[in-house]
Amino acid sequence: MQKTKSKKRVKDTEEREVVAEVRDLVRNFGDRIVLNGINLKVYRGETFVIMGGSGSGKSTLLRHMIGNLKPTSGRVLLFGKDITDFYGPDLDEVRKKIGMSFQSSALFDSMTVAENVSLAIREHTKLEDSVIDIMIKMKLELVGLRGFENLMPSELSGGMRKRVGLARAIAMDPQVVFYDEPTAGLDPIVAAVINKLIIDLSKKLSITSIVVTHDMKGIMTIADRIAMLYEGKVLEIGTPREIKNSRNEIVQQFIKGEHDGPIRFFQQKDDYLEHLIR
Amino acid sequence: MEIKREESNGIVIFRVAGDIDLNTSPELKKFFDQVIKENKKKILIDLKDVSYVDSSGLATLVEILKNLRVYGGRLKLTSLSAKVRGLFEITRLDKLFDISAGEEDALSSFNEA
Question: What are the start-end ranges of the H helices in chain A?
């Protein structure tokens, strides 16, 4: 249930409202350049997928977009505000408008499902328990888990844990939800259920979704637009159809999942034998 | 958020203006806790000037309805904007609440039942 205000809207030249933006973002870890000049915009209401292979920098990019990591250079904007230098209360205030679904679900094992879902509500609001209980039921209904309030995370399957994670991500009625590898480690059917939920939540609640994943089938199902990340750079941004028809060999290798191509995982270096006896 | 109270033929009408969200829902709950203490049986909430209700607002309205039913009180909602009506529909709460399009319909339906 998302709030849209006509004031303070940030429009780009195409008159679409930009809710998240990354400008010339560079991030080094020591000598290694993990993100190398990223530029992208995410528009209100769309499902924007950041795809790329392992180590392409996509999760690092996501962590910059929510303010968890600070760039070496470049800017990150959320809802038109430059959050690059935000810490503490300023960052908390912006984060109230976003939800986060983690790869590992990140549930607290010592808390029930209801306690996990309601954690942020209890922390950030003055709502009474009776009202929070109703909110939890409403959130769990949206992810198909009403009635599971009193179970512990250890009593849930991987897919159910993910769904609890989604319920928690939407607990505070966020305008934007960030998903980090939402289907990682799930069987194809459960993965399809999670992807359907992401679509449903986006449509029903008018949520903007920013999803980091390398699950090709899921990407083509949920994405309005896709950014392909490779070696810390945005190689291409487009609709699923545009990405599918891309002439870029790296994009093609990735979407077809071919082991042979411009993306090399194992590099044979000439100094191998010398390295062994050095 | 502002709440104005009127009374007409035994029906208490509350006109709410502003957003009902995480910040204002606790205030709404407290306000209606007092009303419920008066054991008023017929309550109409006019949402004409409410532009947005988040899930905390919806949950608060459910809680008010629950508490009214304990002593046989009745709650009707009226004049929802299309957007707010949509929020009730997404959560299927349109099936739980008695929602009238206009105030006259709501007032007369109180008297019919």
Answer: 58-65, 88-95, 113-124, 129-142, 158-169, 188-205, 216-222, 240-244, 249-256, 272-277
What's the number of CA atoms in the CB half-sphere (13 Å) around residue A255?
20
pTM across the whole model: 0.85
Domain total in chain B: 1
A125 interaction partners in chain B (CB closer than 8 Å): 22-23, 25-26, 56
Q: Which residue of A has its CA nearest to B63?
A: A131
Name which of B29, B52, B59 is nearest A3 (Cβ-Cβ).
B52
> Which of A126, A135, A205 lies nearest to residue B59, judging by beta carbons?
A135
Say yes or no: A216 contacts chain B, CB-CB below 8 A. no
Q: How far is A135 from chain B (nearest CA, A)?
A: 6
| Tens-place pLDDT, residues A264-273 | 655 566 778 8
Distance CA(B52)–CA(B21), nearest Å, equals 8
pLDDT digits (tens, 9 = 90+) for B11-64: 999 999 999 999 999 999 999 999 999 999 999 999 999 999 999 999 999 999
CATH code for the domain in which residue B72 is found: 3.30.750.24
Helical residues (DSSP H) of A84-236, grouped into ranges: 88-95, 113-124, 129-142, 158-169, 188-205, 216-222
Using CA coordinates, name the residue in chain B closest to A171.
Answer: B55
DSSP state of B61: H
CA nearest neighbour of B44 among B20, B65, B63: B65
Q: What count of Cα atoms within 13 Å lies in the side-chain half-sphere of residue A205?
A: 31
Superfamily of the domain at A2-96+217-276? P-loop containing nucleotide triphosphate hydrolases (3.40.50.300)
Q: What percentage of chain A has pLDDT greater than the value 70?
A: 92
CB contact under 8 A, A125 and B60: no
Distance of CA A11 to the CA centre of its chain: 22
Taking an 8 Å cut-off on Cβ atoms, the answer to whether B26 and A125 are in contact is: yes
- Model confidence band, residue A5 (pLDDT cutoffs 50, 70, 90): very low
A 124-153 residues with CB below 8 A of B? 124-128, 130-132, 134-135, 138-139, 141
Give ipTM to 2 decimals. Answer: 0.94
Are the Cβ atoms of B26 and A138 closer than 8 angstroms?
no
